[in-house]
Amino acid sequence: MDFKYAKRMAHLKASEIREILKVTERPEVISFAGGLPAPELFPVEEIKVVSRIVLEEDSARALQYTTTEGYTPLRKWIANRMNARLGTAFASENVLLTHGSQQALDLSGKVFLDEGDVVLCESPTYLAAISAFRAYGCNFIEVPTDNDGMIPGELERILESAKRVKLIYVIPEFQNPTGRTWSLERRERLVKAAMKHQVMVVEDNPYGELRFEGAALPSVKSFDQIGCVLCLGTFSKTFCPGYRIGWVAGDKNVIEKYVLVKQGADLQCNTVAQMEIAKYLELYEIDDHINKIREVYRRRRDLTVQTMEEEFPAGVTFTRPQGGLFAWVELPANVNARDVLEKSLEKNVAFVPGGSFFPNGSKENTFRINFSNMPEDRIVKGLKCLADVLREFV
Amino acid sequence: MDFKYAKRMAHLKASEIREILKVTERPEVISFAGGLPAPELFPVEEIKVVSRIVLEEDSARALQYTTTEGYTPLRKWIANRMNARLGTAFASENVLLTHGSQQALDLSGKVFLDEGDVVLCESPTYLAAISAFRAYGCNFIEVPTDNDGMIPGELERILESAKRVKLIYVIPEFQNPTGRTWSLERRERLVKAAMKHQVMVVEDNPYGELRFEGAALPSVKSFDQIGCVLCLGTFSKTFCPGYRIGWVAGDKNVIEKYVLVKQGADLQCNTVAQMEIAKYLELYEIDDHINKIREVYRRRRDLTVQTMEEEFPAGVTFTRPQGGLFAWVELPANVNARDVLEKSLEKNVAFVPGGSFFPNGSKENTFRINFSNMPEDRIVKGLKCLADVLREFV
C-alpha cells in the first residue's frame, strides 16, 4: 500500500542520538553519547518504600484515572520549590504535570505553532526540542550565542525584523548541548525584548538543580511582568527518568490551554508515578539526594575537563560547565565530527556529533560530551582514546 | 499579554466528560458519567509483588530511560496475545507502546493528518478521539451506523465521493459510546472498501477482552491484506488505567513513523510501568483476572439493562451491550439530554449527554450510561432516580 502520511513526516528524521545509543548498547562501548543520569544514584531503597506505601494506603486512587492537571500535592510542591529557588510566584493551578518535560515541549508546539511560524532558539540547541517543534511545521531562526547566552543585540535585531515569531526557546542553565549558563544581564534583556515584542519564552530548565559551583541565578521567569515566560522542569535528572514526570508552569490562562491539548494527547500522566514522587518528597529530603548527585557529577565534570585539557590536541576547544550533564567540544573548522565518530566507534568510544543541534544545519566541527553516566575510570579511558583519534584529524 | 495561540486552539474545548467528572467528585453523586473501571477489581496484591520484584531485580533499568519503542518482552506478549485472539500476525517489531491508547490516537493524527484532511467515523464515536484528531485540523464525516456497525453502502458512497479521506476510525467491539458490536460481514466489507480506496483504518479496541456472552469475532485487521489497518489496544480496562500503557500495532513501515513522532512527543513510556506489567503477565494468569472483571461487569450490565427496562418510561430506547462499559440511551427527538442532566444533577445523578459524541453536532436527545464503576445497589438507586427525572420530560 502507498501510505499517505501527513506533510510533516517529510521533515522528521530519527534522532541521531537515539540511533547512536542503539550502537552503544554493547557493554564494551564507552559512551559519552546519551544524556543518561547515573543509575547507581537512583534512590532505589526509598522508591521501594514509597511504592509500598502508596499501594498500601491508596491503591484505588493510584491505579485509577485521575485529572489531566495532575496530582495536586505534587503540583503544589513544584510551585513552592520553584518559588523558593527561581524567584517565581506560582500556585498549584499554574502547574501542569507532563509526561517528562519532552511532552511539555510538544504541547508548547501544539498550543502556539501554526505551519510557517517561527521559533527563535540558541545556536546550538536541544536536539529533541527541534523535533518536537518541527512537527508543527515551524521554521527556526538560530540566535547567535556566546558563553553568556543569546547575544542581546542579535536577538533584538531579529525580533525587529523577523515575521511570525511565536516562541523563543532557551535553556539558561547548563545548556544542552553546550553546558553554558546565561548571565543575569542576558536573562533580563531576553525578557525585556520578549515583553516588548509580545513573544512567548519557553524557559527549559532540566539541569538547574545540578549546579557544582558558583551562586544560583534568578530564572528568566523572575523578570517576567506580563506572563510571557513558561517554565519547564522535570524529575528526570534529580530523581529518575523512568517515571516520566515533568511539568510546565506559567500564566493560568495559558496553562488551561495546555491542559486542553494534553487531554487530547494522552488524558493524564501515570497516576502511580505522580503519587510515588509526592510521597518521596513528603518522607525524604530530596536536597540530600540532589547533593549526592551533584558531588558525583562534579567529580566527573572535573575529571572530564582535566582529561580533555591534558589529552586533547591543540586546536580543540571545549566548555567548562558549572553544572549539568554536558560539555561541548569544537574542532578546527575543517574537521567533521561525524568522521571522527566513525573512527572512534571503531575503538568503541561514542559521542554525539554537534551538527544535529543546529536546526538549520551547520558547525559539523562540533560534538557533545556527556559526563554524568559513567564511572571515573571509564571517563578517563574513553577520553584518552578519543584524544588519540582526534590527533589523527587535528 | 495578548496570547497568540495556534489556530487549532480555536476548535478545542474542554471534554464535557472531564468537566462533568469534576462535579461528580462529591461522594453523594451517583455517576454514570465516567468510563472508569471498578477500582475494587485492580489486582493490588499482585501489583505489590511485581513492583517489589522489578525494583529488587532490575532497578537500574526500571528507573532509567529506555527505547522509544518500549520494553521488548511486553511488546512480544502483546503481539502474541493479539495473534491468538484477533487473527493477526504481528511480531514485537509491529508493536509500539504508547502512553495509553489515547496517545496512539494522537500519534495517528500526527502521522497522517494535514489540515483539511478528512476522518470518517461512526456516528456517534468516542469523544476523546474527536479531540485528538481535531487538533490536527481535520474534518469529520460521520458514517451512518446501525446495530451492526457502519452501514456499508453509506461508507462506500462516501469513499467514492469524499475528497482527502485519510483515516477511517472505528471501535468494532462494545463501542464507546453505544456499546454496539460490529457484525463479521461489516468488518470484512469495511476492509474491502478501505483496501479499494487505499485509506488507513484505525481499529480501536479497548474493551474487546470484556465480552460477557456470545462468541468473539475476528478483528477488522484480520481481513487486511495490504497493511491498511492499525490496531490500538490498552491495559487500562483489563489491568488498570493509572499505568497509562497502551499500544498501536500495524505494518512495520507505518510503526516506524509512529516511533519517530513519539520520540518528539515524549521520548518513551514510563519504564517502571512497562516492566511491572510484563512481570505481572509472566507471573500471573491475566485471563483469570479478566474473567473476574467480566463476571462483575456482566452482573452490572444485567442490572443496568433490567432496571432501565423496568423503570424508564415508554419512548426511551437503549442498547443492550454484549460487553464493555457503556450503554446508550435515546430519548424522543424533542427532548434534550442536557436539560435532563441539569435536573438529574439536582438529584445527584450524573451521566454524559450524547451530543458531544457527534463530531459535527446532532442528536441532543441521547446520552451515555457507564455501568462498570459502581456497586449494584447504587446502579439501581441511580437509574430509578434517573427514571423519575425522565418521566418529567417524556
UniProtKB/TrEMBL annotation, chains A, B:
Pfam annotation, one family: Aminotran_1_2
SUPFAM superfamilies recorded: PLP-dependent transferases
Keyword annotations: Aminotransferase, Pyridoxal phosphate, Transferase
Keyword Transferase annotated: yes
PANTHER family: AMINOTRANSFERASE (PTHR42790), KYNURENINE_ALPHA-AMINOADIPATE AMINOTRANSFERASE, MITOCHONDRIAL (PTHR42790:SF19)
Quaternary structure annotation from Swiss-Prot or TrEMBL: Homodimer.
Example GO biological process: alpha-amino acid metabolic process
Membrane-spanning ranges: none
Claim: Transferase is one of the keywords in the record: yes
Coiled coil, from the record: none
Cofactor needs: pyridoxal 5'-phosphate
Aminotransferase class I/classII large domain segment(s): 56-379
Molecular functions (GO terms): pyridoxal phosphate binding; transaminase activity
Superkingdom in the source lineage: Bacteria
Family classification: Belongs to the class-I pyridoxal-phosphate-dependent aminotransferase family.
Name of protein: 2-aminoadipate transaminase
